[in-house]
Amino acid sequence: MQSFFVPAGGECREKKRRNKIVSKNNPSKPQQAEDGGFRQEISLFGGVSIIGGIMIGSGIFYLGSYVLQRSGMSPGLSLLVWIIGGLVSLLGGLCYAELGASKPKAGGSYVYLSEAFHPAVGFMCGFSSWLLGGAGSIAAIAIAFPKAFSSLIPVSDLTVKIAAIVLILLLTAVNYVGVKAGSLVQNIFMVAKLAPIALILVLGLFAGKQSPSLSPIPEGGVTAGGFIGMVAFATVASLWAYEGWTNLNIVSEEIRNPKKNLPLALMIAISGCALLYTLFNFSIYRVLPMDQITSMIGEGNIYLGTEAAKQVLGSAGQIVVVIAMATAIFGSLNGCILVFPRQYYAMAKDGYFFKSFAKLHPKYKTPGASLIVQAVISIVLVLMRDLDQLTNLVIFSSMFFNTLTIAAVFVFRKREPNLERPYKIIGYPITVGVTLLIFIGLMLNTLMEDPVTSVIGLAVPALGFACYHFFRWFNNRQPSK
Question: How many CB atoms lie within 10 A of CB 12?
Fold first, then answer.
């Protein structure tokens, strides 16, 4: 691996560079920047809000349709799949918890991949996020916010784009003036989004009159092999709703007592979301009869949660759903804008990206340049028509880097056996091995489902590989200021 990425004669210099970076920072303490470092302003609840805020979006009202379809229209099996999806996400989260607690540095996966494998691997991961993945997510979520109101008032395409751009600029400004402000917004909207969702859930559970079948076997039966394939296919759909739990590690340097609070936040948020998703979908089955659900999905109406809200709340149901969707989207967008720039900061701090990205604002202690450039790229993507196609290109590469990050647990356990690990994943190495196999399986499933897009998507990290060598050369030849 080393001889492939590093030019002849450069391996020793590369090792010295990395040793210098590591020795400059005590792994038991948050990494400090030259200009004073980040402020540890994110509490345990703030950490939970960041994960939950990004994970719980408008998808809670429609993703259940995809899971149900892939579960053979079996309510019992679909609920089981939601639980399995939560367990898979929790296993991945526990791997990230060990990495984050032992290496509480800004950057998340970039840091782990750089130290476990090679800086080029970490850079390709961060570069994919900077150019498309992170900015694309921000653009897509910003566009979804004004569209959430389309059921109440007519919204033109121009209005959608203008509102999305204003929202990106607003939340970028909020996060520019300090992580405390961004975390506060995240906490407020975390509570705000849960209130209407909890109202629909509770009313559905207790006011619903349906008695859905909880048998995990679909009507008509299925073979053992077919059952396993069906569960795997449906689990992939459920994981769309759990997407986002990897992002807390990016801001681990700004979490109070990260050795304790980062693992706790991951466990609480992922477990809480799994419980919420399972109960919310069960409440839908308590309200809507299966023949109505089948008819709705057959007609292309996948918003089962919206219909359930109308049933239990009457005419006010639509307004409650819009409020829930808008607050969920707003919180998710704020969380993305908050976390992603820290990864670009870490890349620049190591000398592999724009030098301006490595500077924190002297007063607010935020990566101002990273935030501003991220906003510019996101706005450009908002103005492009094929946003969905662009963001789909990085799905496979994102899964690839997530899989490598989980594999990094094995690497660090072997390479750094004496590293302080405030949290160790239970059942190592079996639990990590099983988690790794699951993620490899999901990655292969994605490759088989859409091989063309997956392969084309590797062009982004390939470009990142070239840019890594450019920045490494360019920054080494420029005198430090």
Answer: 9
